[in-house]
Amino acid sequence: MQKIIIIFVIALLSVTAMAQNKKVAVFDPAGNVDTSMKEIIREEISSIIVNAGGYTVLERQLIDRVLEENRFQAGGLVDDSQMSEMGRRMGANMVFVTSMTTLDVNIYISCKLIDVETARIEKQRTALTQRGANDLLNVVQKIVGEMFDMTNSAGLTDVIKQDSKPKIPKQTNEPASKNVEYNFGFVIGVNSEIIEDNIMPYYGNSYNILKFTGGLAFRIIWPKELVGLVLQPEILYSQTEIHYLMYEKNYYHYLKVPVNMMYRLQVAEVKPFALIAPYGIFAFKGDTNNDGIFYYYDRNYLWSYGISVGAGFDVWKIQLSYNYSWGFGDHVHNNVYTISAGIFF
Length: 345
Known about the structure:
The chain is of the alpha+beta class. Helix content is 22%, strand content 45%.
């Protein structure tokens, strides 16, 4: 009889211990962070939960299969009840969800552990990175370790101790210029120009063939969460080969100084923008069969000005753009189509 009681107690303790191992479904982090970084963060979270004891993490293949069968993606689950329902279908007791939001150059992180039966948040921690994406992994390790009462255990790589209360970013009087980015770069492109000669209209309008443009650019970026402002002055050299109706051809050279003002979306790796740019032009003649308006004014140079509008996108350090320019000078009205590419450092 005594042996039977002992066996019963051991079995009861085993069942109780097994019952304490709660199954957790760890979803992919949501937010505009690189896919490879999301995978690393998910694996790190799974490792911390497993090593905390008392939890079993469901296989990723099972989670992905259930989401696919229900035509969901982890980033498409918008509320806690929806996440709980998906976790229940996976056979989980709890789901772990992570969201990341870009604030200026840093990233705000929220981690939640949700009970699938009640849709109640059992544990939650939030934090803000201090070095953009560079300290994202360490910050995630810190707050997840706190959620499971771990500060320096196996499964945490270089975890830093932190107060149990979530820290609120301190309000400082640091100048806003610290959030401003500066880049220097080179721009090259091709242009096609239509010129209306206001002084000698009997020459007729002229159309040039494709010619090149290129020069230096300096960029100032004020990053925002959604839309950023970019100021990009440039010094460009252009050469045009102009075909008049009465003469064979003229070669003109230009120094153009546009000041591009861009509104740029900050939501992805590819950042589209729209631009408007006032500009000034200094034109001087090259090898010509006819001096055209230079001959009329008996000078070797002319000034002009205008405005450009256009659009393009930035990806990595590369910028591609298209713009159309209207010239408003007294001597020559020129309309220019330009396609250009730039690289910034």
